[in-house]
Amino acid sequence: MKDKILIVDDEDSLRLTLKLRLQGADFDVSVASNGEAALEALKEFPADLVLLDINMPVMDGIETLGYITREYPNIEIIMLTGFADFSTAIECLKKGAKDYLVKPIEMTELITRVKSTLRAKTSERAYRELQQRYMSTFFHDLLGPLTTVDSTIEHLIEGKSGHVSKEQAVLLRYAGELTDKMSQRVKEMIDLSQFEAGMVKLERKPLDVGIFVEMMCARYEILAKAKEIKLVKKIEKGLPTVTFDFDKLAQVMNNILDNAIKYSLRDGTVTITVARTTREELGKKNPYILFAVKDNGVGIRADEVPLVFNKYKEQLTTKPTDLKKTVLGLAISKHIVEAHGGTIWVDSEVGKGSTFSFTLPIDEPK
Amino acid sequence: MTQRTASEPIRFTYRFRFDTGEVKTFEIALDATTLELIHDADLPKPEWTKLSFYPCDHCPLADHVQYCPIAVNLSRIVTEFKDSVSHEHTEVTVETPERTYFKETTLQKGLSSIIGIYMVTSNCPVMDKLRPMVRFHLPFATPTETMFRTVSTYLTGQFLLMREGKTPDWELHHLVDFYKSISAVNKGMSRRVSNASVKDANVNAVIILHSFGDAVPYFIENGLAEIKHLFDVYTKGEK
Question: pTM value?
């Protein structure tokens, strides 16, 4: 299959000559006349590489670079710049562009740079995929024996291999709990590695958002009551049906609600809000459903807020090493929400509490 | 529009009208025989027009030549647009001896059209090869139109060469070589103009010309594939 290249330049003669030369070098090429047109084009044309002019009307190259690196992290970008734009070109490299070419462009140089950028991308991607597949297999290999250990403990506790004293039963239960925790961690690692390897397929079905949230809250009402926490639901009436993967979204809600209850103080309040919202994208307001879970618990330190959805967050914090744990729930939640075309974020203040929010598109996800 | 006599200069008027209402007009007069630009004696020669200022690779002009002839031809227009942005909207009217052209376009496109005239009428030994084309100047030409005019002009030259008993280059080999040299001039000129400007309108205009020039060898090597079908009437059924 041919590599796909999108040329973004406001000058039609440049677009045409670049296109002809790249087609001649056996690339599949599409063109766009400004940043906004490029983002539209990318919806239909899954480019491997974008050649992006800096100085354009409507939406310039720097703004477009920001959008593409955020929305399409797998696309490589080479900036096209005039002679006076060196400092801007360097700024673009800092913002995620892979390379830049100075106009007027030598065609041989262009084709060489495009090929080498794509080659680097292919080998990097192949290595990453291999590593992710290896990790996924490795965690599956761990899960099998752990399940066997768990059922063996269960078997012993039930006395199926002979009498178990009270003291032995307590120790076996403790070993069982640890095995469960370990299995849970391994399952999380499998989930995360599968998302990262792009191996997860969502099983989307049209579902009633209101009913979904009620179902999720039912379990937590009991837990909240036990901790004397008030659970308040503010679910907008007449919410539309949204197409999503029930089990995966339940995982997200469980993660967020678990945290809200866990970090809320006794007599606290957890408020769940579900409502319609819109998000401005490329000058257009698109409809979304907003899910927000607010607690008035301990809150998160300002320097830790940007790390909340990062799988390495514990390693990146200033905590002593022996207190660091692997906490993957929110990193997985981010993958799930984004796979549905939504966004997840947190607002928090120490001593006042946190609000975890995410959105899901009402229309078909992009 | 009055009829021009054979010895009268060939005149082009380029008029740029901007959204602000400002109008900038450039009158060009070419010698009817040599097609050389007839310029005012007081044409400015700023520092960047010196031959030694970012010279083109393999410049054939002798060391005693103080000023780059192309740069001198361009000095007024480059100075005029040194602070302009390439994609600024403009209405360009071009009056030629035969007709008037009008296009709503970007400044870079309008500039590339007029700069194209200045570059081939300067006595630069490299760009001189394109001078016959200026007599049939086509403002705002597309790459395909430019390619057609380029090949047609060259083949006309080869026909005349043949009539004189010399060896014509029907395979366009030398045209590809010309364009490699022209590409070096366009590149050198874009460096020079870029250093004489604050914003990108001037340099992008030269870059457009460079992209046309750079595409010519490709068009030829590719067997003029983009326009080949238009000549089916000659090629189909002919042995």
Answer: 0.64
